[in-house]
Amino acid sequence: MAATPTYHHGDLRRAVIRAALQVIGSDGVAAISLRDLARRARVSHAAPAHHFKDKAGLLTAIATEGFDLLADALTSVPPDTARKLREMGARYVEFAVGHPAHFEVMFRPQLLHGDDPELTAAKERASRALRSGIEELPGALRPDARRAGLAAWSLAHGFAALQLSGSLPALDDDPSETFRTLFANHPATELS
User: Fold this and answer.
1) Same domain assignment for residues 86 and 168
2) In angstroms, rounded to a whole number, what is the distance separating the alpha carbons of residues 152 and 188?
3) Which range, 28-42, 113-127, 139-153, 172-186, has the best average confidence (pLDDT)?
4) How many angstroms separate the CA atoms of 43 and 12, rounded?
5) Quick one: DSSP state of residue 151?
6) Hey, is 178 helix, strand or coil?
7) CA-based nearest residue to 123, from 190, 48, 67
8) CATH number of residue 3's parent domain
9) Rounded distance, CA 162 to CA 167, Å?
10) CA-CA distance, 41 to 120, in Å (whole number)?
């Protein structure tokens, strides 16, 4: 007789998130099933619900982790770096390319528990880090910091999304370096 999986697991939460990231990376977010993830983690089919309650709870945990990782990447740009905004955009691209499953989930609010306090805090931390790149520009270069921030974010996010979808031509082995070059050489990005 085959043994029935039990709820006992060293770090079930991490194991389920890791399995979910693998599924998203290979088959997309639509392929996520708590029952399948429980099977992959070798626990009972109800065990993941103890940590996440439902699929949206799991995806919220992944998005929260993603926003925290993004904030870490953005805040790692030294404040005295010349062209800080360009470097932050490159770090944004590096994050997206390095964490494509997180990136896929983070910006799909319809899949998440939007009122989750941990998600809200992580999003605010990432947003604050993004704003810092604009707020530290000399006053003459940021007549409207909100619009400049939206433009910079759109440029980095759009580039990252196009890169992940395979829609960009291969210009360089390093997408973040391609972003740096494009950002530095485009007239619309003279605020860097």
Assistant:
1) yes
2) 10
3) 113-127
4) 8
5) H
6) helix
7) 67
8) 1.10.10
9) 5
10) 28
Picking from 153, 147, 93, the residue whose alpha carbon sits closest to that of residue 123 is: 153
pLDDT single digits (tens) 56-66 = 999 999 999 99
pTM, two decimals, is 0.85
Domain with residue 146: its CATH number is 1.10.357.10
Q: What percent of the chain has pLDDT over 90?
A: 50
User: Helices 175-185 & 84-98, crossing angle to 10 degrees?
Assistant: 150
Q: Of 129, 121, 178, 173, give the one whose Cα is nearest residue 149.
A: 129
Question: Coil, strand, or helix at residue 168?
Answer: coil
pLDDT at 95 over 80: yes
Dist. CA 171–CA 15, nearest whole Å: 36
Q: Are residues 80 and 67 in the same domain?
A: yes
Residues 72-94 have a mean pLDDT of 87
Mean pLDDT for the stretch of residues 147-162: 88
Contacts (Cβ under 8 Å, ≥6 apart) of 21: 62, 101, 102
Domain that includes residue 108, residue range: 55-189
Domain count, the chain: 2
Burial label for 145, CB within 10 Å (0-12, 13-18, 19+), is middle
Whether pLDDT at 130 is above 60:
yes
Say how far residue 30 (Cα) sits from the centre of its chain. Answer: 17
